[in-house]
Write a structure and sequence with these properties.
Layout: H1 8-28, E1 35-44, E2 47-57
Antiparallel strand pairs: 1-2
């Protein structure tokens, strides 16, 4: 079993992922939200390159 690379870049990106997840949850976990949300990570050779945040809301 392999573990994630403990690089300064990954440490920074992991913090960004946690902040992004908290922001998404604050946005969607409220009454009246209908839709989907997700976080997508692009990884190359064990290093997080990009974080993509997506929230799609259905208008009712």
């Amino acid at each position: 079993m392999m573990t994630h690379a403990k690089t300064p870049t990954n440490a920074t990106k992991v913090s960004q992922v946690e902040e992004t997840l908290a922001a998404i949850l604050a946005e969607i976990l409220k009454r009246g939200f209908f839709g989907t949300a997700g976080i997508e990570l692009s990884v190359q050779d064990g290093t997080i390159q990009h974080i993509r945040r997506r929230v799609e809301q259905i208008e009712r």
